[in-house]
Design goal:
Elements (H helix, E strand, L loop, with lengths): L4 H4 L6 E3 L4 H11 L3 E5 L5 E6 H8 L11 H4 L6 E3 L4 H11 L4 E4 L11 E3 L3 H6 L5 H14 L1
Parallel strand pairs: 1-2, 4-5
Antiparallel strand pairs: 2-3, 5-6
Helix pairs in contact: 5-7
Length: 149
Amino acid sequence: MTMSVADIMKKKLETIEEVASIQQTAKKMKEKNVSSLVVVDANDRPQGLVTERDLARKVCINNVPANAVTNKEIMSSPLITISTDSSPSVAADMMLQHNVRHLLVVDKNNLTNTRPVGMVTPLDFTRYQEFTNDSADKDAIEKILEYYI
């Protein structure tokens, strides 16, 4: 059985408005027990991504008040996306190529709609690694796990 990104992705995405403060973002991350939030505009369209790493590197170490900075100011953008039917090894290669830890997954049958249907992070590959028999896939997955974990 060939697995795809759709098989390993997290399907529940949490969002936050781009005008929300970083303090609100940190609270929502804690409340939802997630390490990233998709940043959306006033029309609920994805604009970027804010991660715990962004909070630490762009706010905390710069001694900036968390209630004075908005998501739009620190979000990672543009979003790096991958199709639901892509292989996990392609996803791992994309993460390494773009130096990112989160890929937003979009439905390949609806690429005109930019709404993501899920997200893939390096931890998602740990489940996949148990099922793969393809050595090329295993090599790509091991690279991403060694690099990010």
